[in-house]
């Protein structure tokens, strides 16, 4: 049974039987919280869809050292080590379940990397006058990629009005063990470049 996390809660990444988790899937989801007309329609300039992009910052010593090669996103779907694979961009957030999925092979992560930061930003949010206050049901979840069992889930329930990006969670190594931290912090960064500078 999956553990429902609260903001700031940290859990060890282990399988249901207590063994170390080696292959995991990080699922991220969201829905546009808009009505079919009136005020919301005007607010969105008649555009219902919100294009959210999930990305991963792969850090050494807790910092993003190489922003060219160590960001996995829709423009760079696989890390050079083969340890992190982004399954592609969802342009609308339509449908049930995960909107974007990222697979991580913890055993393939080079030893000098100690943290993976999972972020979501709204594509052209400023231009389209869209922000995370217009999104509902946002979540991040960790799934055992071998058994497909959901291990933990964090529903992001804060007020994210005027926030253009979100740091959803971190997978990090401490004393040789991989853990997950439910972060859920919103930022006003208008794009991936400025968001990544926070961790450089």
Commentary on this structure:
The chain has 200 residues and is mainly β. It contains three helices and twelve strands, in the order βββαβββββαββββα. It has helices spanning 38-43, 125-128, 192-197, and strands spanning 3-4, 10-12, 23-32, 52-59, 71-72, 84-86, 100-105, 115-122, 135-144, 150-155, 165-174, 177-187. The chain has a six-stranded mixed beta sheet, with no helix packed on it. Strands 2-12-11-8-4-5 form a six-stranded antiparallel beta sheet. 35% of the residues are buried. Residues 36-47 have low confidence and may be disordered.
Topology, element by element:
Blueprint: E1 3-4, E2 10-12, E3 23-32, H1 38-43, E4 52-59, E5 71-72, E6 84-86, E7 100-105, E8 115-122, H2 125-128, E9 135-144, E10 150-155, E11 165-174, E12 177-187, H3 192-197
Parallel strand pairs: 1-10
Antiparallel strand pairs: 2-12, 3-7, 3-9, 4-5, 4-8, 6-7, 8-11, 9-10, 11-12
Quick rundown:
About 10% of the residues lie in helices and about 40% in strands. With about 200 residues, the protein is mostly beta strands.
Q: How many helix segments?
A: 3
Q: How far is the N terminus from the C terminus?
A: 36 Å
Quaternary assembly:
single chain
* Main beta-sheet strand count, sense and barrel state: 6 strands, mixed
Strand order of the largest sheet: 1-10-9-3-7-6
Q: Percent helix among the residues? A: under 10%
Radius of gyration: 17 Å
Strand percent estimate: 35-45%
- What coarse outline follows from CA principal-axis ratios? globular
The total count of strands amounts to: 12
What is the mean pLDDT? 88
Order of helices and strands: EEEHEEEEEHEEEEH
């Amino acid at each position: 049974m999956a553990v429902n996390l609260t903001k700031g809660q940290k859990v060890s990444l282990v399988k249901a039987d207590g063994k170390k988790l080696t292959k995991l899937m990080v699922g991220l989801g969201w829905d546009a919280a808009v009505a079919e007309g009136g005020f919301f329609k005007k607010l969105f300039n008649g555009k219902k869809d919100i294009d959210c992009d999930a990305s991963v910052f792969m850090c050494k010593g807790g910092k993003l050292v190489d922003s060219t090669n160590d960001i996995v996103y829709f423009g760079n779907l696989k890390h050079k080590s083969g340890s992190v694979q982004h399954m592609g961009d969802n342009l609308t957030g339509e449908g049930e379940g995960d909107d974007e999925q990222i697979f991580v092979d913890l055993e393939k992560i080079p030893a000098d990397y100690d943290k993976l930061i999972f972020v979501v930003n709204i594509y052209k949010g400023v231009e389209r006058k869209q922000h995370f206050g217009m999104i509902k049901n946002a979540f991040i979840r960790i799934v055992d990629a071998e058994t497909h069992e959901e291990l933990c889930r964090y529903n992001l329930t804060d007020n994210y009005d005027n926030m253009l990006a979100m740091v959803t969670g971190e997978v990090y190594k401490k004393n040789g063990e991989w853990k997950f931290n439910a972060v859920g912090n919103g930022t006003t960064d208008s794009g991936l470049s400025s968001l990544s500078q926070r961790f450089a």
